[in-house]
Amino acid sequence: MSLHIVVCVKHTPSATGGISIDASGKVKTDGLQYAINPFDEYAVEEALRIKERVAGSTVTALSVGPARAEEALRAALALGCDEGVLLSDPSFEGIDSYASAYLLSLAVKKLSASKPVGLALCGKQTNDNESGQVGQALAAWLEWPSAALIKKIPSIDAQKALVERSIEDGVETIELDLPAVLSVVKEINEPRLPSLKGKMASKKAVIPRWGAGDLQADAAVVGAAARVVPLASAPPPARGGGVLIQGASAQEKAAQLVEKLKELKFI
Amino acid sequence: MDYALTETQQEIVSLARQIAQKKIKPVREHYDQTEEFPWPIIEEFRKADILGVYLPEEYGGMGGCNMELVLVTEEISKACGGIALCIATSALCAIPILFFGTEEQRKRFLPQIASGKKLGAFAITEPGAGSDATATKCAARLEGDHYVLNGIKNFCSTGNAAEIYTVFATTNPLRGARGISAFVVEKGTPGFSFGKKEEKMGIRASPTYELVFDNCRIPKDNLLYKEGYGLFIAQATFDASRPGVGAQALGIAQGCLDETIAYIRQRKQFGQAVSSFQAIQHMMADCATSIEAGRALLYATANAMDRAIKPAVAKGIAEGRVIYDVMSELDTQRWTKESGMCKVFCSDTAMKVTTDCVQMCGGIGYMRDFPIEKYMRDAKITQIYEGTNQIQRNEIAMMMIKEAAAKSRKELVAA
Amino acid sequence: MILCIAEIRHGKLVPTVFELLTAGRKLADALGSPLAAAVVGGPAAAQAAAEAVAARGAERVYVLAHASLEQFLEEAHALALKGLIEKEKPAQVLLSSSALGRSLAPRLAVSLRTGLASDVTEVAVGPDKHMRVTRPAYGGNLVTQLSLTGRPEMATLRPMAYPRLEASGKKGEIIPFAVDPSVFKFKSRFVSFAPEQTSEVDLSSAEKIVSGGRGLGNAQGFELIRKLAQALGAGVGASRATVDAGWIPYRHQVGLTGRTVRPRLYVACGISGQIQHLAGMSASDVIVAINTDPNCPMMKLANYAVQGDLYEIIPAIIAELARVRGDAPHPAGAAA
Are residues B47 and A199, on separate chains, in Cβ contact within 8 Å? Predict the structure, then answer.
């Protein structure tokens, strides 16, 4: 019994360190280099490994984004995914995780009409907005069980998955009936490099594009009546530097340091 | 600098770079110290399909030629010239088979090299025959359906890690240089064993071995082309492979310079970065200029060679013939002079650049736990193997004289 | 009403709810709304948690108790809370962006057909009376302000972003909320939990790293490094000298011949800062150095330098962290 696996990828800026904002507090996107979201590479790798574990399985990569997001799909194809579909439409511009997950759920349903999808994989978060919501939100839209922060999948077949999720003080083992959605963390695997043959093939691959009409998307859900409205962005407050922590005793110095770490939101 | 690489070439560079930086860089010091063969890296090469970039698609390669081999070798050498060497020796082994082998021989050996299933090596040097290959003593005697090999080859790079060897042995000692022939020998053939392993100054991740042939029987069909053509085959092979050595040298130089610049920008002396001193800046400029000049020469040569060679290769495969015969018919130019220039210039540049980089880094540049000194140790061999730079200069001058003579004959005839 | 969702982990209340209540108090005062909390869990744990929360800041505590809710399953918890929220209609809902919070909140938000702002570091009320939040993005290189306009307005708060509300002496009302078990047809099941002594955080993706150097004096010193790393949710790094001495495996080595790392926080303990080591970590956002020599390169490079014996300083830091956090183990999940 085989699995039709879907993996969700996003095309994001490669170097988040060079991000700058314009006068109105909007992120400047001109001239940025984009690539597949690094966290998604782990999801793609896991999808490919599950494909290898469960005989006869296939992997379809999905991405919500503008035309350039095709590159993320081609990267997934070069690694070994069987097909990629781009969900793109002018009305999808600037949407939040809630709407992205909705669109992905419509695509999963559309794919399931011809071949039922048994598993959807997502990365932990994106390296731009870092909300980390899409995986769980997708599961809610599909009304499928889900688990996040997955660091290992000890067993999986076409019906069930046994997964280990990372929580603060240890590891929980959960069993899910498929179809289900899993969000994975970087510890789960080491992503493979593409092969040249894979890259050449991915360049020639045809990537279908589904717009609002193809997905029969409800404009009210996708629409600009967004529920989470970005106002403005700014660089973070400057970190202090070159400070010798004062204190008469080890305890005093420790207290000072911990206070600083709290201020800087490290703890 | 934009070298107008094709999309495929850009993909090759990108992938080779990822392997070099992510997989090779973290372990190069380990392999340099232990001299273990980097099998895990070979596995990465195999998975990435980069070992066959220069071989025709018909044999499982990517259908590229010299330029693609140069690009891969250069990128990998930026991380470690020693690890890159096995790609170059596999090419040295494969090229004679490609150009001088029959369709049957090409089919028998090339797919395994293209896929990386087996690595290749090239065995011509002997204790008494270095620059002077005519002094080859290793002998091959025809006995019925087999050739029987006896003798010793030394300084064979990739040594015991390879499984396919192009070996040169004399089938007719009385004819001297014209009596040497080229053979393909497979590892595991009874009578073929390994002798001394060399301890080297640099490229220590590449095993250098003595090969011992003691009544080693190989099938008659393992002879390449015809008896007596051995040295000719070797020369033709070197013409095609010299850009690869140039690429290795250039990669070593570039990798070294990049890491040096990163260091001297943060290292401060007398209150300023080392890279801000004029003496250093002049050295930086000279290093970078030589590397760019070498690269321009290398890429131009590789591209020119490919334009000439690829049609001959395609025709030879299509017609099932020996490609060298097709090249002769098409009057394909010999590239001895140009490829020699690449090898000489790039290797001399690598030695100078790496030496200057150690100098720019100062004391730390000399220390084994800093990556720079390894580049200098690795660079030296590029001036020596595949024809010492002195021999190269001889060849270049000889070709210049031949060309001048041919030119003046033409003018005489025209006049 | 502002509703703060408490977390019960392994049958015990996690103190992050008191951080939510501090933030919630701020919103409640600005909006003139009541401040409530909800606890979800097995009957005994939920009751005990409700008592603790009612005694410390919540005016009202809803108790959703059922044997099926004993272990955390996002399907189950989301369904139970959906029932409560649809009935009581809080205008704002806050959760902690712990592992549980990250798993639960997006599912809950979609089931309520509302938006969610995750991992926020600040909450406020905008002039339009909607909740405004501040959160980091782009690897901490940007800080973004967002306005929430869905209903309810939902956000997950980064642990430790707000201090924990102290007990006020007033006791809130505890309100049991009936959970209808007939809707509990779940497609996932809790199997087991394994507590983890040391989580091996991958250095190259670690947000925080604690490294040990020759100043440790011996291999046992890394026990202390590991303890501090665990307390901070950090990876463990090492200088080359310690690896060469065999005190710790090579995969922990940071430096030119080891790994190059770019964490947000790098704590160097007993590391003098040789060029090779610095080259491997100088791009870290914030560097803390602990060393007896205030003039060594690492102390000079550090944003925060602590001079002293690390065998005194590090235990003091660990103790201080525990004090500041109360009972909770280190914040949000794997650093990757």
Answer: no
The whole-angstrom separation of Cα B198 and Cα B184 is 23
pLDDT tens per residue across span C230-288: 899 899 999 999 998 889 988 899 987 777 788 889 999 999 998 888 888 887 889 99
Which residues are paired to A61 by β-bridges?
A: A7, A84
Phi, psi dihedral angles at C200 (to 5 degrees): -80, 95
Q: What would the two tokens of residue A241 be? A: 């530097």
Give C-chain residues touching A242 at CB under 8 angstroms. 302-303, 305
* Backbone dihedral angles phi then psi of residue B322, each to the nearest 5 degrees: -70, 130
Is residue C226 within 8 Å of residue C174, measured between CB atoms?
A: no
Mind telling me how many Å the CA of B26 is from chain C's nearest CA? Answer: 7
A71 has a chain B CB within 8 A of its CB: no
Residue A234, phi-psi category: left (phi > 0), alpha (psi -120 to 50), beta (remainder) = beta
In the annotation, is B386 catalytic? yes
pLDDT tens profile B48-93: 999 999 999 999 999 999 999 999 999 999 999 999 999 999 999 9
In SS3 terms, A25-80 reads as CCECCCCCCEEECHHHHHHHHHHHHHHHHCCCCEEEEEEECCHHHHHHHHHHHHHC
> Which member of A131, A229, A232 has the closest CB to residue C118?
A131
Other beta carbons within 10 angstroms of residue C309's beta carbon come to 13
Q: Taking 90 as the threshold, does the pLDDT of residue A220 lie above it? A: no
Residue C160 class from Cβ within 10 Å (0-12 exposed, 13-18 middle, 19+ buried)?
Answer: buried
Place of tokens 């020759």: C214
What is the distance between the terminal CA atoms of chain B, rounded to a whole angstrom? 45
Chain C residue with minimal CA distance to B28?
C257
User: From CA B186, how far away is CA B119, in angstroms rounded?
Assistant: 11
Q: Do B15 and A196 touch (CB under 8 A)?
A: yes
Nearest by CB to C304, which of A135, A139, A243? A243
User: Are residues C175 and C60 in contact, defined by beta-carbon separation less than 8 angstroms?
Assistant: yes
Residues of chain C with Cβ-Cβ distance to A180 below 8 Å are 187-188
Residues of chain C found within 8 Å of residue B33, distances taken between Cβ atoms:
none
* Distance from the C229 Cα atom to the nearest Cα atom in chain A, whole angstroms: 12
| Helices and strands of chain B, counted as H and E runs | 12, 10
The helix or strand, by DSSP H or E, that contains position A199, with its residue range, turns out to be helix A196-204
Would you call C279 and B29 a contact, using CB atoms and an 8 Å cutoff? no
A246 neighbourhood in chain C, CB within 8 Å: none
- In angstroms, the separation between the Cα of residue A199 and the nearest Cα of chain B is 8
| Token couple for A84 | 């990629």
* Residue B22 pLDDT > 50: yes
Residue of B nearest to A199 (CA): B11
Residues C157/C163/C168/C171 CA torsion (nearest 10 deg): 30
* CA B191 – CA B150 distance, rounded (Å): 9
Catalytic residue (choose from B126, B338, B386, B395)? B386
State phi, psi for A144 to the nearest 5 degrees.
-105, 155
What share of chain C in percent tops pLDDT 90? 64
Q: Do residue A146 and residue C109 have CB atoms under 8 angstroms apart?
A: no
| Highest averaged pLDDT of the listed ranges A237-251, C82-96, C185-199 | C82-96
The pLDDT tens digits of the residues spanning C16-69 come to 899 999 999 999 999 999 999 999 999 999 999 999 999 998 999 999 999 889
Tell me the two tokens of residue C281: 């970590």
Residue C313 near residue C216, CB atoms below 8 Å: no
State the smallest CA–CA distance between residue A40 and chain B in angstroms.
Answer: 18
Contact at 8 Å (CB) between B323 and B99? yes
User: Closest Cα to residue C106, out of A89, A122, A73, A231?
Assistant: A122
